[in-house]
Design goal:
- It contains 9 helices and 7 strands.
- It has helices at about 15-25, 45-50, 70-85, 100-105, 110, 130, 135-145, 160-175, 190-200; strands at about 1-10, 30-35, 55-60, 85-90, 115-125, 150-155, 180.
- It is an alpha/beta fold.
- It has a single domain, classed as 3-Layer(aba) Sandwich (Rossmann fold), CATH 3.40.50.
- The chain has a 7-stranded parallel beta sheet, sandwiched between helices.
- The chain is globular and about 50 Å long.
- Bound molecules: guanosine-5'-triphosphate and magnesium ion (MG).
- Magnesium ion (MG) binds near residues 14, 45 and 91.
Length: about 200
C-alpha cells in the first residue's frame, strides 16, 4: 500500500485533482483509497468523491497531522487489513504541514507494509503572490512547499505565462530540490506527469 499526500493551502485545487486522478487510477486494475480530512462539520469533499464510486473514509475532526493522528493510524491499519488498496491518497487540510503527516506514517510503515510515496504540494498560481505576501501565511505556505517532493503549480489555465513563470521561480527558490509540474486539472495539463510521479517516486 503506497501512501501519497496531495497537500497545499486552502482552495489550491486538491480535491479537484484527486477526483480526476482517482477516476483514472480506479479505472486501472489497482484499488485506490482516498482519505479526506475536513475541518468543517459537513464532509463535503467526502461526498463529492463518493459520487465517483471510490473508497472514502472521512476522518473528520481537526487536522490529521496532530489532533486525530490516532485516527489516521487506525484508518491506515483498517485499510491495510480490510480494503488492501494499492494506493492511498491523503488530502490533509489546507492548514496541515505535510511532514507532520509523514511523521505519523513513517514509524508504522514496516509493520503495516506501507510504502511512502511522494508528497505533492499544490501552489495556486492565481493566488501565490497573496499567499507569499502575508508573513503568517507565508510561513505556512513555504513550510508546505519545503515538504514537497513534487510541487504542482495549479490552475495554470487561468494565468498568463508570465504569472506561471513567477510562481515557478518562487517555488524553486523555496524548494530547489522539488520536481515542479504545471497543472491544470480543468484543462488536463500535467495530469500524466503527476500520475507518473505517484507511481515512480518512493521515499526510502
Ligand atoms: N481555473 C482552475 N480552477 C480550478 C482548478 N482546479 C480547481 N479549481 C477551482 O479551485 C477551487 C478550489 O478547488 P478544490 O479542488 O476544492 O481545492 P481544495 O484544495 O481541495 O480546497 P480545500 O479542500 O477547501 O482546501 C474550486 O473553485 C475549483 O473549481 C483548475 O485546474 N483550474
Ligand atoms: Mg478539498
Amino acid at each position: 500500500m503506497k501512501i501519497i499526500q496531495i497537500a497545499g493551502y486552502l482552495g489550491s485545487g486538491k480535491t479537484s485533482l484527486i477526483v480526476t486522478l482517482g477516476r483514472s487510477l480506479a479505472s486501472e486494475t489497482n484499488k485506490v483509497a482516498i482519505l479526506v480530512n475536513e475541518v468543517g462539520e459537513v464532509p463535503v469533499d467526502g461526498k463529492v468523491i463518493e459520487e465517483f464510486g471510490l473508497t472514502v473514509k472521512d476522518i473528520g475532526g481537526g487536522c490529521i497531522c496532530c489532533q486525530v493522528a490516532g485516527n489516521l493510524l487506525l484508518t491506515l491499519k483498517s485499510l491495510s487489513q480490510k480494503v488492501k488498496p494499492d494506493m492511498v491518497i491523503i488530502e490533509p487540510t489546507g492548514m496541515a504541514v505535510p511532514n507532520s503527516v509523514r511523521d505519523v506514517v513513517k514509524p508504522v510503515a514496516g509493520k503495516l507494509n506501507l510504502t511512502i510515496g511522494p508528497t505533492i504540494v499544490l501552489l495556486d498560481t492565481l493566488r501565490f503572490e497573496k499567499l507569499l505576501g502575508y508573513e503568517t501565511l507565508k510561513r505556512l505556505v513555504s513550510t508546505q512547499l519545503k515538504d514537497a517532493d513534487v510541487i504542482a503549480l495549479s490552475k495554470v489555465d487561468a494565468v498568463s505565462e508570465e504569472q506561471r513563470k513567477k510562481a515557478q521561480d518562487a517555488a524553486a527558490e523555496i524548494n530547489p530540490g522539488a520536481k515542479v509540474i504545471g497543472l491544470s486539472t480543468f484543462r488536463g495539463d500535467g495530469l500524466d506527469e503527476i500520475m507518473l510521479a505517484m507511481r515512480e517516486i518512493t521515499i526510502p
